[in-house]
Structure formats: structure tokens, C-alpha cells
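Sample entry copied in:
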Amino acid sequence: MILDFIQFQKQRVAKKEIKSGTLRNHQKTIKSFCETTDILIPWKKITKGLPKGKRSSDDRAPTLEEVKLICNYPDRRILSIVSVMTSSGIRVGAWDYLKWGHITPIMDKNDGGKTILAAKLRVYVDEDDEYFTFISSSAYAELYEWINFRKGCGEEITNDSWAMKNLWNTEKNKRKNSNTFVRNGISNPKKLTSIGIKRLMERALWTQNLRIKSDPSSKRYSFPTDHGFRRFYKTRLEIGGMKPANIELLLGHEIGISSSYYKPTEEELLNDYLKNVEHILINSEDKTQKELKTLQEESKKFSDRYAFDMESKETMISSLKDRISIDDDAMSALSDRIFEISKELESIKSHLKQAN
């Protein structure tokens, strides 16, 4: 029966109804069942003639222009979701665990904590595969604005509040009593699950005319709905020059035997992330602000160096003036002494004449 099933699937592969990778997935499922139920099957003989599937799919990461187009979809949550996913590389399933308290802003120590450099994001909190990553300052700002909007509508926000939630009823406020108005649903917010986010992204992609197949005969589109943001993150950071091992760690991936030896600190990961974060920024204004900040820092360094040079020169000039002053005093004293000696010589000459 297994051989008949495998042969039938091979015929489907030959007709291009399914991919060879799909066939192998069917075989793996049957093999797992047989091993669990102690049914002995000669799998080496069965799998020997199976066609080899591709190790990677033909789809790609979305371009920056496509990501910007998705963000233009008219739903106030979309920009927050896309900004977080493109700047952290989290999977869509991470939203099922993400709460507001899991996101911590990282302040710039150089300006006394006035500027947010990025934010630390804890992923899959309290699960075995928990890890941390970072989101850009602009992504944190978008999420913070969304949280403040919910606060303004009457939701009580705590560290245990879900980062993303369903839209509440948009009907007019309903009178609860003579003095209080309550928006229907905001007092009992419901989490927007990963499935809900996936559906939201699908609507955005279709509405923005981005659901295009790379091959008309293929079932795949040009890039995945949500996983494409994860590819966007890795692709652009690697092109930008970030260390591949650091990218893998911030994606929550294992790095093999290297994990036993390569142990970067959180600060080292953050510094490498901040050096390359401009490559994953969606808004061009964010890049302009980053470039402006860089120019300001360089200008400050130049000003500090110029001020130091000026201070050094002034100190040198002051020292020379002091030396000149000392030399003038010495010359004046020497002149006075010479005058005194001259007077003494005149007096001696006068005495000698009188003695003669």
C-alpha cells in the first residue's frame, strides 16, 4: 500500500501537480507513524527512487518599495506590525506571546537618556525557545503610538497587555450611565492572534496588488505573506555588512558548534545591530534622521577637537608670554645690575685718582 501510494505521488510529480518536496513530506509523515507504532518498513528501499526536492523555495524577500506599499494599507495597526517584523525578524507566531511588558526601550547614555536608540524585544517569553532581539527606534515609536491610542480610547494598559489586539466596535459611544461613556469592546480587549495578523497581511497584499505569482503554473507567490519580512530582515542586514552569526542569534536560530564558543554580549549585539539598522528602516525620514544624527556627532567631534586644539594653542601662547615676561624681567634686572656695577666702577676710578 505504501509503495502504491508513493508511486501514485511520483506520477503527480511527473505531471507537475505537486513538487518533489511535497512527496517527501508525505513519505516522512508515513514513516513517523510507522516508527511510532513499531511497524517495520524497509525505508531505504522505498526512498531510493524518490526524486530529490529543492532545499529552498523559488520565492524571495519583499523589496523595500513593496514593504512601503504594504504599510500604506488603511489599517492603523499595519504600520506597527510591519515595522516590528521587518526590524526584528520575528515569526508571525511570536505575536501570540508578545505583551507590552516584553518590549523595553534602550536609551542613549551619551545624551543623558534623552534619545531612544532601539528597543529590546523578548520573544516566546517563558517558553523553551525564548530569545531576545531588537527593534528599531522608529518601530518602537509606531508601537508606542498604537498603545497610546488605545489608552486614549479607555483601555487600561499594563505590562501584561497584548502588544496587538483586535479592533473594537467602531459604533458611537454608548451611554453606560448619566456621567460615563464607554466605547463598546475597549474595556474587554481581545488579542489579535497570529492567524488574525496573517489574514490582515493577506488583505493588505491583495488590496495593494502585491499577490503576484513568480510562475503562473506555481502555487507560490513572489514572496511569503509574513515570513517574507523575516527574509527581508536577514537579507538586508547581511548585505549591509552585519555579522551573519549575530543575525542568526537575533533571529533565534542555532549556530551549531559555534554556539559553544561564540558568546557575544547583549551590548555587542546591539552595537552591531545599530551600525546596520539603516538597511531595514522603512521610512526614509528615519534614515534622514539617522544620517543627520551621524553628521551631528561628527560635527561635535570636530568641534571638540577644534576646541581642544584651540585650548592647546592658547596654553602654548600663554606659556610663551610668561617666558617672555620672565625674560623681560631678567633683562631689566640684568640692566639694573650692569648700571650699578658701572656706578661702582666709576666710584673706584674716582678713588684711585684721588689716591694718586
User: Anything to note?
Assistant: The mean pLDDT is 83. Strands lie at 103-107, 116-123, 131-136, 174-175, 181-182.
